[in-house]
Amino acid sequence: MAIAKEAAVAEWGALFGTVREQVARKKFAAVPLATAATCLILLFSIVQHLPGGAQFVTRIGVVKAALPLDVSLLRTPLSLYVPALDLPVWGALAQVFVVFGIAEIVLGRRLTLVVAYTCTVAGTLFARVGVAIGPDHVFGFPKWVAHVRDTGPSAAVVALAICIAFRCRAWFTAGLVVATMVGEAVVLPNLAGMEHVVAVIAALLIAVSVEVFGDFWPRVLAGVGAAAVVSTATASLEAAAADVRRRTPAGAAVP
């Protein structure tokens, strides 16, 4: 028991401490993105069960591989918050609030959104490729899959879990998530399972790139900003000096 406790502390201790501190200090203000995402899922869940609501939700947030690419990409941001009809909505609510909340604290809001949407788009594009190459390919799907409703936050949740584990050096958790998603795709070879694997791959690429180049572009942008400030200040001084020379009578001494 003591060994298991030590392993849990080593794996999640730093993460738990960071999240607890932020939540204790700011309460819901610490996770506005997670709160908004959870409310959106609840809203879509209610609306799609109202008379005429399902058609409205379909028009603005349901993605299918059979749709034109531009329509799918336009609907993808909202498709993340449209829960699947055949799964309990409370599961999606719990997943999003917990995982998005932890990601918002650990990764920051901007990176959380980048990971969630990038991996969701990757899954959407993979579905189209799978239908195009056909069922004879190991990663292909039959034509009828093009008409399957492809919505929900699961791909984003999986991707964020990978990035959180990577950031916190929770290697066992990361390996467990990867193994679970690959096992799901092998045992249940359907669209959702394959999209989860694609989300894992995309999340790993993002996590590695952030580790390697994470502070590179901020330094570049800071340098550009500093150079712009110096350039602006220099130009202002030169303009002021020219104005002084212009106003000074000929032969008079310039102070």
Percentage beta strand? under 5%
Derived structural class: mainly alpha
Overall outline: globular
- Unreliable spans are none
What about the largest sheet? none
Which H/E pattern describes the elements? HHHHHHHHHH
Task: Give average pLDDT, whole number.
Answer: 84
Task: Note the total helix count.
Answer: 10
Global Rg: 25 Å
Could you give the distance between the termini?
A: 81 Å
Helix content: over 70%
Got a strand count? 0
Summarize this, please?
The protein is mainly α and 255 residues long. Helix content is 75%, strand content 0%. The longest helix has 32 residues, at 216-247.
Comma- or semicolon-separated keywords:
255 residues, mainly alpha, 10 helices, 75% helix
Report on the architecture of this protein.
Helix 5 (89-106) crosses helix 6 (109-133), helix 7 (154-167) runs parallel beside helix 9 (191-213) and helix 8 (171-187) packs antiparallel against helix 9. The longest helix is centred in the last third of the chain and has 32 residues, at 216-247. With 255 residues, the chain is mainly alpha-helical. The protein has helices at residues 2-26, 32-47, 53-61, 69-79, 89-106, 109-133, 154-167, 171-187, 191-213, 216-247. 75% of the residues lie in helices and 0% in strands.
